[in-house]
Amino acid sequence: MWGPSHVRCAGGLIWPESLIKANGWHPFLRINAHGLVRVGDHAAWTPLADQVPRPGDAWAGAVTCFKGTPLRCTLVGMWSAEHADPWLIVTDLPPDQAEVAWYGMRTWINTLAKIVARQITTFGLMN
């Protein structure tokens, strides 16, 4: 059985949370490591980059991101050796249900969308 749908947003987009949640989906947004985060209920804001500081590290937990406009969420992060930067993902899923590796599916999804669009164009399936 398939689990709940997950919405992957391009960096910088704000997800229409009410629309996403009304459909039973979950936001899954990659952010850069240049902001600040407050882990759990701690008062201190620390750099996002501190959560996964080097290749091989992974982390997940309840946080508040974005000091200027705080967002309580789950942050999942992973830095694999083949990437120049860590993947930092914010979601509303609990830390034990969110997998940062899902973000890697975006390349497969993008490729599939391009193939479908090409087929529609090639065979004139759209009027």
How would you describe this structure in keywords?
single chain; alpha+beta; 7 strands; seven-stranded mixed beta sheet
Walk me through this protein's architecture.
This protein is an alpha+beta fold and 127 residues long. The chain has one domain (6-100). It has 2 helices and 7 strands. The protein has helices at residues 17-22, 105-122; strands at residues 6-9, 26-31, 36-39, 46-47, 58-65, 71-78, 87-91. It has a 7-stranded mixed sheet. Strand 6 and strand 7 (87-91) form a beta hairpin. The longest helix is centred in the last third of the chain and has 18 residues, at 105-122. The chain is globular and about 60 Å long. The relative contact order is 0.16. The mean pLDDT is 80.
- The low-pLDDT segments are none
Strand content: 25-35%
Largest sheet, described in full? 7 strands, mixed
Mean of residue pLDDT values: 80
Query: Approximately how much helix is present in the residues?
Result: 10-25%
Order of helices and strands: EHEEEEEEH
The count of domains is 1
Distance between the termini: 35 Å
Please, what is the oligomeric state?
A: single chain
The backbone outline, from C-alpha atoms, is globular
Alpha plus pi helix count: 2
Strand tally, please?
7
What Rg is obtained from the alpha carbons, in whole angstroms?
Answer: 17 Å
Structural class of the helices, strands and pairings?
alpha+beta
Query: Main sheet: which strands, in order across?
Result: 1-2-7-6-5-3-4
